[in-house]
């Protein structure tokens, strides 16, 4: 299915949102609960599928829902369609502070691999499926886990990175990264996990026991502040004098 052609604008700095502009009968799909606001003419319906393929039977829908549950996402996807005339607008916000990244799948070989909580929204026609990391080391120690998500299509999709987004274009090179900082990469990039130096460095170096290794040719997206690291610093870091302040900030973030 050819993806709908949607226009968009991204606004904000530390906490961003994306506003999607839809022509009549155009549709954008999004994670359940991601919608920030919508204007007149926009109607939404929650489905088990992403709408990229012809309607499946009950078993197919349940299988699709189960696969999304395994990746840690909601089993439902919300479809927002402009049923009015002129231009319609609907906006989506990220679940925690960071950067929203527009990804034109048609210009990136038709697919990208992302960590399981990175997907925010996409043009109708985008297929969202599981992607198994076949290397056990990457699965157990890679931060993103054994199961990632694959976004396929020829239109725009939007992913979210915690903190600041860093984009690298690898040209037969190798990049070693903190395991939790990998947001996504083009299909064809080799993703594995290696020890962080010798035993002394692993224990006392402060960089963790393992590092993610990305090699090959294509784009890689990284995040400067994964939500897991932010929560860890707010909950256990710092002196006793500011623990109460950090705890209040942590509660505020979790309530968003």
The backbone outline, from C-alpha atoms, is globular
At the fold tier of CATH, the topology name is: Double-stranded beta-helix
Helix content: 10-25%
Instruction: Report how far the terminal alpha carbons are from each other.
Output: 35 Å
Q: Please tally the β strands and state the result.
A: 17
The portion of residues forming beta strands comes to 35-45%
Structural class: alpha+beta
Which regions contain 5 or more consecutive residues with pLDDT less than 50?
136-145, 200-207
| Tally of individual helices | 5
Total discrete domains? 1
Average pLDDT figure: 79
Radius of gyration: 19 Å
Could you walk me through the main structural features you see in this protein, from its secondary elements to its overall organization?
The protein has 256 residues and is α+β, with helices and mostly antiparallel strands. The chain has a single domain, classed as Double-stranded beta-helix (4-Layer Sandwich). It is 18% helix and 44% strand. It contains 5 helices and 17 strands. The chain has helices at 58-70, 136-141, 199-204, 227-236, 243-254; strands spanning 7-11, 17-22, 27-31, 35-38, 42-47, 77-82, 88-93, 98-104, 111-114, 119-123, 127-132, 147-152, 156-162, 165-178, 182-186, 190-195, 210-223. Strands 9, 11, 12, 14, 15, 16 and 17 form a 7-stranded antiparallel β-sheet that branches. A 6-stranded antiparallel β-sheet has the order 5-6-3-10-13-8, with no helix packed on it. A 4-stranded antiparallel β-sheet has the order 1-2-7-4, with no helix packed on it. Helix 4 packs antiparallel against helix 5. Residues 136-145 and 200-207 have low confidence and may be disordered.
């Amino acid at each position: 299915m050819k993806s709908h052609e949607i226009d968009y604008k991204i606004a904000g700095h530390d906490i961003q949102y994306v506003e999607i502009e839809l022509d009549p009968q155009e549709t954008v799909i999004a994670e359940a609960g991601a919608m920030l606001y919508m204007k007149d003419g926009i109607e939404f319906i929650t489905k088990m599928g992403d709408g990229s393929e012809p309607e499946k039977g009950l078993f197919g829908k349940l299988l699709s829902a189960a696969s999304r549950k395994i990746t840690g996402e909601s089993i439902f996807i919300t479809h927002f369609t402009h049923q009015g005339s002129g231009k319609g607008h609907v906006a989506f916000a990220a679940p925690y502070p960071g950067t929203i990244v527009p990804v034109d799948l048609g210009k990136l070989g038709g697919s990208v691999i992302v960590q399981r909580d990175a997907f925010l929204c996409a043009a109708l026609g985008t297929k969202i499926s599981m992607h198994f990391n076949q290397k056990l080391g990457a699965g157990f120690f890679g931060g993103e886990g054994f199961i990632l998500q694959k976004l396929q299509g020829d239109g725009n999709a939007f992913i979210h990175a915690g903190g600041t987004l860093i984009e690298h274009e690898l040209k037969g090179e190798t990049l070693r990264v903190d395991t939790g900082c990998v947001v996504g990469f083009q299909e064809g990039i080799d993703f594995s996990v290696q020890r962080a130096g010798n035993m002394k460095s692993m224990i006392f170096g402060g960089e963790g026991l393992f590092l993610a290794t990305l090699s090959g040719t294509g784009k890689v997206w990284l995040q400067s502040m994964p939500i897991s690291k932010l929560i860890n610093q707010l909950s256990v870091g710092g002196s006793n004098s500011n623990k109460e302040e950090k705890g209040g900030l942590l509660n505020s973030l979790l309530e968003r």
